[in-house]
Every structure is written in structure tokens, then in C-alpha cells.
Design goal:
Layout: E1 4-10, E2 15-21, H1 23-31, H2 37-54, E3 62-68, E4 75-81, E5 85-90, H3 92-95, H4 99-103, H5 107-111, E6 116-122, E7 128-134, H6 141-151, E8 156-164, E9 170-180, H7 187-198, H8 200-204, H9 215-219, E10 223-230, E11 232-233, H10 243-247, H11 251-259, E12 264-267, E13 274-277, H12 279-286
Parallel strand pairs: 5-11
Antiparallel strand pairs: 1-2, 1-10, 2-9, 3-4, 3-6, 4-5, 6-7, 8-9, 12-13
Bound molecules: zinc ion (ZN).
Amino acid sequence: MNNYILKTLAYNKQVRIFFMENTDMIKEICNNKNISNTLKTALGKTVSIGTLISATLKGNQRVSIKVNASNSQHKIFADVDSMGNIRGYISDALLNEPLDTINNLSVEELIGDKGYIQVMKDIGMHSVFTGVTDMPYRNIVDDFSYYFKQSEQTDTFFSVNMVYNEDNEIILSRGIMAQLLPGAPISLIDTIKEITFENQLILSNFNDRKNFKEIPHLLFRDIEIVEQYPVQFLCGCSKEFFYPMLYSLNREELVDAYKSEKSIEIVCNVCGKKYSFSPQEIKNLVQ
Ligand SMILES: [Zn+2]
């Protein structure tokens, strides 16, 4: 079990704290793409925040988060459900920007001063809750703490640790989400924040890697692990999903493909899976 969440209660059950290790998932989503380091960091943070938010969901609830940069074509997405299925991706326009252009920007510069967060929560029974807030911190992680305070009136703290090797590949990814429960003193969220900052070394030391299950006890007193479960990258794409994309090709191109007995291959942008459409399938589609 390489990606998982530990749900805990701490400080006399006044706060719930979720601990997440999602290194393998982040490697799968971020490392195998030819994307700039800035995008890798921004995507990794967004996916990690989404993974932590998935731990707040129940039943069939789903959440989609969208990080919108000041450039309206530049967006980063994460979709999660209560079963811990996570997918994350980048808008085509941002993905196709020249590597150097984006690499010269920090995450803060990429987000810019007009960035905003959108959270769509599908709470079942065809009911969707949408929240939008601006991004005063421009670093994604603190902006989501701000989102919860503004939009859901919940004192929440997020922390994401990502460690890179010398080839700029992510080799460790961990995160924490703390949320005060009703009646808790507001100062408790600052206590948790301080303790997390003081213990960055425990969270991000790759060489002397602590067993993740020990970490809650190393950081906080009076903490009890309530639940532990795996989370996983799941794109959820299928061949049917890509038929509309085939339709969007021009008719001549499709006719040409089946007449010359050529298959058409479409690659999923999110997971990299390849789908091949045979000449017969293309013919059926055109006729
Ligand atoms: Zn896919």
C-alpha cells in the first residue's frame, strides 16, 4: 500500500487531522509527463490537496477542483471521490505552452494576481455545491486553507511536502489536512500549523524516511488513528469516452483512414492510455 490516508482525531477530539502519503500516485501523474518543473509542482500540489479533500467525502460524493491561473487558458484540475480515486490533469493550452516559458515562472507567477479556485462538490441527489474564492497566496496550498475559511466557514490547514531528486523528479509526496470540529478554540489551528512547520524535517526527510504511521505520534500529542485506507490514481477513461473526439476530426480524414485500412490512435491526456480505432470502427462511425 503505497498511497494512503490516515484519519486521526487529536486534542481531545477537537480537530480531525488527515495524513497522506501519495508518492507513487504523484510519480505516476507528474513524472512521466514532459512538463516543466513549475507545472509538475503546481499539478502535484493540486492533486495532493484533492486527495486530502477526498477524505472529507461520504457515500457517492465527488469533488472537482479547478485552479484557474490569471491567464484564462491556464487551468489545473483534480477530480476525487470518497473511495479515494484520484485523477489530475492540466488544460491543453497550459500543457502545450513552450517548456521554457513556463519554467521561467514560479508557481506564484504562473497563478498571477487574478487566479481563483473553483470547487464543485457533487453531494448526490443531483445536487452540486460550487464555491469560488480568489488566491491571495498564489501558492495553491495556502489558497485552499483560505478557500475553506471563506467558502465553507471551516478553519482548515493544509500542508504539502514534495521532495525532488537532482533530475527534478518528485521522489516523495506527503500532506496534512487539519480541520477544527465544532466547539474547538480557533487558536488550535495555529498550534497545528506551528507544529507542522517546526517538524518539516520529519515530513520531508527522504533519506531517513520515517514510517508514515509513526508521524502522527511524532508530531502531535493525544492523537488517535481512526482509519487507514489506500487511495489510487484512476483516470476512469474508456474507449467510448473518445468517440466524440473522433467525430471532431474532419470527415475526409476519417474516410481516408478506413479506405486505406488505417487505424486511428487517440492518447488520453490524463493517464496516457492509448485507444486504437480500427478501419471498420471508423467506417461504422462515418456511415
Ligand atoms: Zn485516461
